Amino acid sequence: xxxxxxxxxxxxxxxxxxxxxxxxxxxxxxxxxxxxxxxxxxxxxxxxxxxxxxxxxxxxxxxxxxxxxxxxxxxxxxxxxxxxxxxxxxxxxxxxxxxxxxxxxxxxxxxxxxxxxxxxxxxxxxxxxxxxxxxxxxxxxxxxxxxxxxxxxxxxxxxxxxxxxxxxxxxxxxxxxxxxxxxxxxxxxxxxxxxxxxxxxxxxxxxxxxxxxxxxxxxxxxxxxxxxxxxxxxxxxxxxxxxxxxxxxxxxxxxxxxxxxxxxxxxxxxxxxxxxxxxxxxxxxxxxx
Length: 289
Prior knowledge:
six-stranded antiparallel sheet
């Protein structure tokens, strides 16, 4: 194992997502192959210490591993495949994007005339892959070291996360991260609509309402939404509802009809059909796992 993987393994003794001493920072461990399946990635930065994950988004496929960090500038429903084993578990440092920190760095970059000039012409998908550099690996290593100690995590953690953000902004693919911070960009306006969806997915959500919220025409909003998320607004809403339903079924053991209502479905039969189509299992089978 590399030094980075060793530190991640120490911070992730259990399968799945392990909390650390720093809010918004977790370490994931997966010790078996995970077949391609749907899930929702949160807004954040992901650095792999060992193993590999492959994401499928619309018709695109891309990997992230120890040579390639993944940045999700918005929460995205994707399909994920995990390459891991007991002998070589996948280990991933997961760091939430703090918009206050991001905006602070962007202001400083702007003062030094370091904001990309062609930002509005650049594609603005809701993610990008950043090739890791020696500087980035050093930043990850120092953060992992600090996370071993509650005191060091509290004293130095936020500064080290700030450093990681800065390193990522120096990536050649970082236009979406800049766009997230600047209020006039397509991505930042879609991100505002996504925040609304995540707060109100259990209610009736109309595309015209979302477009009006970000001061765009419905047609322009639909184009920008597709660019950022690779989904239409209705498809995105459906995936978020179904993903949240799966979490409720597994964590709270609620009845299927109650879950359907809670995530915004008027018909439990329609909910069950769409759930099975999306997850390849019925809500009842999911609840019994």
